[in-house]
TrEMBL record:
This is DNA-binding HxlR family transcriptional regulator. Residues 34-132 form the HTH hxlR-type domain. It comes from Rhizobium viscosum (Arthrobacter viscosus). The keyword Phosphoprotein does not apply. It comes from the Bacteria. The lineage of its organism: Bacteria, Pseudomonadati, Pseudomonadota, Alphaproteobacteria, Hyphomicrobiales. GO terms for molecular function: DNA binding. Keywords: DNA-binding, Transcription, Transcription regulation. Transmembrane segments: none annotated. InterPro entries: HTH_HxlR, WH-like_DNA-bd_sf, WH_DNA-bd_sf. The keyword Transcription regulation applies. SUPFAM superfamilies: Winged helix' DNA-binding domain.
Length: 143
């Protein structure tokens, strides 16, 4: 399929404008260094979206986040928060209390991501039943 040109609806806030169409030559893409895959891999994790959703509303302390998502382990919460912090979506502030307390909040980069992510979350909620029905139909036909 070398040289295949595909029309993709690009959703960028750049000069093309939101919803602009652009053609992409699939043969010229470097799939090993794809920015879309790189970003989505990090925010598509099991806990990242829930944490971004919570922190979009207000800053939270570690313990508050842990109580909000009761089935996440302390280790996984710590790792997920570090990953989001590493990518610049959230920031961590340590308060000089005894014992020290830590608060997490969304950064400007995180807010810009959440603007787009919230549209996907709304779409998923609105279409979840239809997606599940399609899966059931597909699985029934595969048998």
């Amino acid at each position: 399929m070398a040289g295949t040109v595909v029309n993709l609806k690009a959703r960028t806030g750049q000069s093309e404008g939101l919803g602009a169409r652009r053609e992409i030559d699939l043969a010229s893409l470097d799939f090993t260094n794809c920015p879309v895959r790189d970003v989505l891999q990090q925010i598509g994790g099991k806990w990242s979206t829930l944490l971004l959703e919570a922190l979009a509303k207000q800053p939270y302390r570690f313990g508050e986040l842990r109580r909000m998502i009761p089935d996440i382990s302390q280790r996984m919460l710590t790792q997920s928060l570090r990953d989001l912090q590493r990518d610049g979506y959230i920031e961590r502030e340590v308060f000089p209390t005894k014992p020290p307390s830590v608060e997490y909040r969304m950064t400007e980069l995180g807010r810009s991501l959440y603007t787009v992510l919230s549209q996907l979350l709304n779409w998923a909620e609105a279409n979840h039943d239809e997606v599940r029905a399609a899966r059931l139909r597909f699985d029934a036909d595969a048998v």
